[in-house]
Amino acid sequence: MEALASWLVMMTKILPYRLASILEVAMADLAKCENNSEFKIDMNSWHEVKDNIRHVGLAGAVMAQTLGCGLKDSTPPNFKGYTFQLEAIDSLQYGSVKTALYLIDDRQRYNSYKRLNVTSYHEDSNKFKHDISKVLDYLR
Question: Which residues pair with 49 in a beta bridge?
């Protein structure tokens, strides 16, 4: 019964479809993971468990925090319903704004896209966050 209740709660959580809103959720979820010893930030992973430590990138942080992916899950049960949003998050963490716009089907912005660079999280996490804030400003 507890598993069913957990599944129902998970299925009622909705990941937004607007790219700026998705990125805001992702950055909030990343902050939660950064402040939790159960997580290691690894932008080369989505959500992998190694030695009971959850290795997550930006999309993996959303999978763990917003979508409720558990310690033993590589993907949340409702992953397929959010594939495009998670792929877009993954693209944004590397500065591929055009790819993210394509995945979300924002043709107007896709056609007027401007290149934005995003510093690697592992190179400089503060610069990464600063660069992502510039991407957010562009998307708003």
Answer: 54
Gap between the Cα atoms of 23 and 21, Å rounded: 5
pLDDT tens digits, residue range 103-121? 886 666 766 776 778 898 9
DSSP state of 17: S
Beta-bridge partner residues of 56 = 41, 47
Asked if residues 50 and 137 have their Cβ atoms less than 8 Å apart, the reply is: no
Structure tokens at 57: 């990138």
* 78 exposure class (CB count in 10 Å sphere: 0-12, 13-18, 19+): middle
Partners of 40 in beta bridges: 55
Predicted model pTM: 0.81
User: Domains of the chain: which residue ranges?
Assistant: 16-139
Strand, coil or helix: 50: strand
135 within 8 A of 117, measured Cβ to Cβ: no
